[in-house]
Write a structure and sequence with these properties.
Blueprint: H1 5-14, E1 17-22, H2 31-34, E2 35-38, E3 43-46, H3 48-55, E4 71-76, H4 83-96, H5 105-110, E5 113-116, E6 133-135, E7 141-145, H6 158-161, H7 193-198, H8 211-221
Parallel strand pairs: 1-4, 4-7
Antiparallel strand pairs: 2-3, 5-6
Length: 222
């Protein structure tokens, strides 16, 4: 079905940056997503996702270069590892964003992921004092995951399913080779976050016909 190609083609067409990440079966903590502290060299080894979140940080006090642009992060074959192990904590942070005032530093820290707790000064060991490092993912960072379901993969929990929009692709009736090329030859311009937000439609009585009927139907299904 070319499910890994869809997000890339969508990104190219919409003017959204694209970051593909291949999930590995050994992933078992948020460190696999963001990076880890190299104790031998006393240096934080960031992943591409960790660096991208710093570059696209759109929190109020951020001066990041790409804060006004969007990025799609593709977690390819995301259920090769147990999703709750490496993504659950981060998923909770994403959900908490809607209820906080990001202008307040304490609230911003609450919805950010701490990847490095910082150092205390130790002159004998030559260690300088350093502040903690937090990663914040704003609404300009979109996550997409692809997955197969077979004996080599992990099943999704209700917690993950309830927090995602799931598209299921059935087995094709007939096998057919179709070229799935992505084209990088045309002029590409990034879309702004403000322009993106203009396309979002909030579900309410004005935007949805028969709102009450649909509301009751969804509650019955639930």
């Amino acid at each position: 079905t070319g499910k890994s190609a869809y997000p890339e083609i969508y990104s190219q067409a919409m003017g959204v940056h694209f970051l593909p990440l291949a999930v590995e079966p050994r992933w078992d903590s948020p460190q696999d997503l963001f990076g880890f502290l190299n104790y031998m060299e006393n240096r934080f080894e960031a992943t591409t996702l960790g660096r991208a979140l710093r570059q696209f940080d759109n929190s109020p006090n951020s001066s990041s270069e790409f804060k006004d642009q969007l990025i799609i992060v593709l977690l390819d074959e995301m259920n090769l590892a147990k999703i709750e192990y490496y993504f659950s904590e981060f998923l909770s942070k994403l959900e908490m964003r809607r209820n906080v005032n990001l202008e307040q530093i304490d609230s911003l820290i609450k919805v950010s992921t701490e990847i490095f707790s910082g150092n205390k000064e130790d002159k004998e060991k030559g260690i300088e004092k350093s502040d903690p490092i937090f990663l914040y993912a704003g609404t300009n960072v979109l996550f997409v995951g692809t997955m197969n379901e077979d004996e080599t993969t992990q099943s999704l929990s209700d917690k993950v399913i309830d927090r995602a929009n799931v598209l299921s692709f059935g087995k094709p009736n007939r096998l057919k080779f179709i070229s799935q090329n992505t084209d990088n030859t045309y002029k590409w311009e990034p879309i702004s976050v403000d322009n993106w937000k203009k396309w979002l439609v909030e579900p309410n009585e004005n935007s949805i016909t028969d709102y009450d009927e649909i509301d009751n139907l969804l509650n019955d299904i639930n």
